[in-house]
């Protein structure tokens, strides 16, 4: 428990440093977000001035950051976008979409990836193994947007198996295809990691001992080989949560899912500092929590780690 | 811990994951059902609007929604002429003081009657500087604007009402402008001049999210940001264009490519922005349901006339004659755009097919001769454009190649500027070479192009007293018809001196599903009220 608390406290300096860095980076982008608000049309000088004052853009960076942080901690106010929408509300709306997408992808990675890896590992060198190796190599080599558009056109438009875009059908219908696209890259890794682990563990002394004792093969694999094999996979799945968020930017764009990824992309283009910082902070927190969860899971999978 | 326990742990984790997903999922499902509710409903693909307050948005996506929610005083017909809608008449004796009579019996969606005050309140709020609304600059020509928008930094406005706006009686509104302006009636078609009910001013922020209009459709439920906006037929509508269908659902897309895929899949009924690259395919796929629409948007190549290397009008004309517009349009826009030899778009009253004469026609030999006679160009030629769309770079490269080949300009470089920085670069006159200039029409009048682009404080740093005088005379002309020859004479001067070359006129490409009919999209409105659902 103390371990968990320490890990959470470590997040505080990470949090402050990350948010400031992000704020600084967004601020130093070229261009004037206020002038860009009206597109090709001019905005009168006094309108520009009022807008700058409203968003504190006339203050030095450090003051802007201070005002933002004061708002967050004193009033729980994440600021507002240039169109006047409260950032907190915005993230609330979008958060559910990205969570559904990422979890769909994650479950897909976990279930299908581990299954494929185990099959390949148990049948090393045979056709199933070769097929998994070839398939995963292909998936890793092709960029996400190619997989995404192809899946959308072929499975969504031509075959009509899935909705092409949007969230009209809710979960799971609208999220299956984008989830699979988003999870395909991680799935390839999970399958390969599992396979290697399984192959290695099947050669280990304790597996040979268990077999020699006359234990049934299914029990040997299930209880001994597989459980140990999952340690590197769990590590990967934890870290992968961050990758899923990054991949969501592309996938949400292709499948028109109004989630966090799409928001980050738009907000960086519009130089909306508070939005980018708000989202990033949340992502950092998730990353830290996911890693914490992984560390705790180690203990479950391998008692030696827990006791040590 | 046993295998069983591990499995249970994993199961709990999965269950939690699914539970979290499911709670968000129910939300999405209800949206889906709403879309099917009502037998005569159709859907329209849209990008996320920025605001839905008439005074605070110039985004075309917002305007698409507002045109269904609001009746403006005037609308523009397909010939580019003003027609009365919420107004009964717009009249003047001197082009400076205008009397607007409001048609009786109109109601807002909350039952409040539409009066002269509804317009005056909305306009005063838009013109009030500290509100910082996008359409503020549409009121610069109204008497009293300066008191609401002090120039000096830190100064507080001395008034919050335009002196040039007078509510005479509930059905009569009087407008006084600073200068005579013959085009005034047509400007009233812009959604920025829509009326607002009293209820709006109790909470403007809430109104921006849920506007109450006076049009044939009313908002149905909350604006679900980045997902959908639903409208339903307004039963109390007594105007000239009652809705033919019961409901409209705007489905919000982040990318027009995805929207186009959804149109092909039959998931959305109307898309106004088929990507130009897919035009050929869409034409084959949709047949009669593919609708090309002329647009008022023009592309130009501007010169920094303030830079002494670009001060010769003959040199600028030589550049113009060296550019093969048709070839570029074919290569970059699949032939969809129209090469231009006029400064205004074809749908503008007063447009002349070849106002420019030979200076806008591609002629290699004459271009070279003129170029040499003007002393040519030495040094690096920098070409400026923004990174907002990949096609800008494509056509700039084509222009560069033609200048190299046809004029022998040796050293051409590209200056690609981030979109957010592009306008301030031009405004501060930091460019030292020709640049992409674009104009999106506000209303179909030559004045909208000429005065904004070639008038006072123009980007090129070009100045002609003759031109300015003619614009002022046209603005003061006794009627819109009488103003046109004067604008044409002003256009001739701008073409003779050529501080900016016309390139091509845009075209929009819409498409719709077989589920709907009576689609009448024009350059001014998608006219969603006319659409019927099969």
UniProtKB/TrEMBL annotation, chain A:
Is Transmembrane helix there in the keyword field? yes
Q: Where in the cell is it found?
A: Cell membrane
Show where the ABC transmembrane type-1 domain sits.
Answer: 95-298
Membrane topology reported for the UniProt record: Multi-pass membrane protein
Identify the main location: membrane
Q: Which GO terms describe its biological process?
A: transmembrane transport
Keywords, comma-separated and alphabetical: Cell membrane, Membrane, Transmembrane, Transmembrane helix, Transport
* SUPFAM superfamilies to which the protein is assigned, alphabetical: MetI-like (SSF161098)
Q: Which family does it belong to?
A: Belongs to the binding-protein-dependent transport system permease family.
Query: What's the protein called, per UniProt?
Result: Peptide/nickel transport system permease protein/oligopeptide transport system permease protein
Q: Could you tell me which species this protein originates from? A: Sphaerisporangium siamense
TrEMBL record, chain B:
Top-level taxon in the UniProt lineage = Bacteria
Q: Name one GO biological process term.
A: peptide transport
The UniProt record lists the keyword Signal: yes
The record's listing under InterPro entries reads: Peptide/Ni-bd, SBP_5, SBP_5_dom
GO terms (molecular function) for this protein are: peptide transmembrane transporter activity
Report domain Solute-binding protein family positions. 82-458
Pfam families linked: SBP_bac_5 (PF00496)
Q: Name one GO cellular component term.
A: periplasmic space
Claim: Signal is one of the keywords in the record: yes
- Assigned keywords, A-Z: Signal
Span of the secretion signal?
A: 1-24
Q: Which SUPFAM superfamilies match?
A: Periplasmic binding protein-like II
Protein name per UniProt = Peptide/nickel transport system substrate-binding protein/oligopeptide transport system substrate-binding protein
